[in-house]
């Protein structure tokens, strides 16, 4: 059963009974699919397969997937490993390539540079400072060797620039750490800033070195050089100049605030940024990345110098750039950067007029919801909350309560999204609540009570949120509030909290308590006579009660099973009667079907599943369950002695299983929301269908189904792999090998390496991939030897 909450923050939780059915399929054979088993979760191991063994597996998979060395793309593979977060594997793989006598020339050309980039990426995830420093030193050694091998080349200039950026980034981290030190650690702060200046000096030297190389290259171009080639060389030189100014900007940040030295340094920096911008406009009016970013940083320097009017003009010019996709334009990757610039522009307004800032920022937040996940967007939300709270502290009466409530609402929004501002929002929210002196979430107005209840809801404090929503309704009654739509929304939120409390009992295995706690969400009165038929939360609570009753039925001893069955059927009928057109009614029906499965009555369960309306949202899940039933019938017949099997019935059950799963998948595809990943049981359904196609000998159709799933997983890029996902990859490579499509099987292996987490399950699949591919290689080699022998005989 799938429980969907009335609000976005209510989590989806399949019932224990559902987990027993869906997702229990194995990887070896179709028989595994029909085997009933208790709910369990994959245990994650902190251990890692010996890295060298895994990389040998990776290398073998690559080489087996290609017909010859020339068909390999080792550099692309290294980049994929780095991009997927496996920099350590990229380092080992590069070491393996270096030991090969036939290392491709394209790899040999850039090996030291690729090694330096991989080591830097590995350093970024190091567990301690000492290990990080060791890796960075090794990276610099390889980069220095690469530069020495290719003095004066464009590639060496790029490598030197990367080296300078690495040094500058380390300095930026030192500045941030130093500035976070408390006033009592003044000496340590000074030392940290001094160390950062030394690091910046080293970065400046590298940028100057790169600039010299790029300048020589530009000067060496013949007069008749094509304009686009000369323009590219000029832009590369400009990019180096931009980095030099960035070093000077951060060097200014190491000087004491408001000091004459810092002011002078910032003036020089502002002028230098503007020079880069103006030069870029002369080269190409469309602006390169360096020119656009230089203009932004010119605005920041002007702001720090106190010239807010100039800073605002610059930020608005930057935001008018064509690369800013705006409210509706296609995404191009620049959205987070432009959101940060908008944040800077609005902060100027906040410093001058809080009222105007709140108005303009609130409008911007509404118009640019697509940027919700960016730091810039979340920063604006936080500043709106601060401005509202600042005005609330100066206000009185209803205005004070209204602004406090709006500040809390904004902070709740920021607290929901991971960003650099999330922690600050959470702390400010606590500060506001503490300042209110309402330790039990008491409130004096309806709006304040709702805001406090929302804050509790955001923190998943269901009971406190429910009680505070009830308090809001009580205050509304006292004041004879007539906003029906808002009152209904608060009642629904309170019912949702009650549902979540019942769900918590369910997840703890306290099924009787869960059923008892669904009552207040389902009924309007304590006598349980007035059903909340228009409430989504009530329907969900009722379906949850059915699921709890199903689990009690499954655990009941034989002498109590009949009573438990009656109770389950009664609760299911109650749900179907009161919410016949909602998915929860179908959930109730399907739980009854699962109860039939539990006692082995597959035919009756099948009858229930197949009676679910094709127009229902639960139809795909019903067809998945029906497909499992047909698989169970097929396997039961197949396990009989060969002379006792009904081959005709087996073929019919297999065909019907394929038909039900296909019908469910077609409807499920129609239910997809564009741009969103499909539900989990889509993968389980299509995986089961692929297995049945294999069982029916339809390998081509099975391969298409598996490839579609692999493509979906690749697009979704899940952070964790469950058992079904691992089984999909193994099934895909088995089918590809059976069809003789070894290169395709190798591609599947590379996707798993790129996306798969470091778990024993994933690593074991990689090993099995290698074995499968090696078997096919041996077959091919044997066939080649046979042909060669036959040819000799014919001679």
Key terms:
disordered C terminus; 2 strands; mainly alpha; two-stranded antiparallel sheet; 795 residues; disordered N terminus; flat; 33 helices
Strands of the largest sheet, in order across it?
1-2
Helix/strand/pairing class, anyone?
mainly alpha
* Alpha-carbon distance between the two ends: 70 Å
Largest sheet: 2 strands, antiparallel
Number of DSSP helical runs: 33
Task: Tell me what you see in this structure.
The chain has 795 residues and is mostly helical. Helices cover 74% and strands 1% of the residues. It is built from 33 helices and 2 strands. A two-stranded antiparallel sheet has the order 1-2. Residues 1-71 and 790-795 have low confidence and may be disordered.
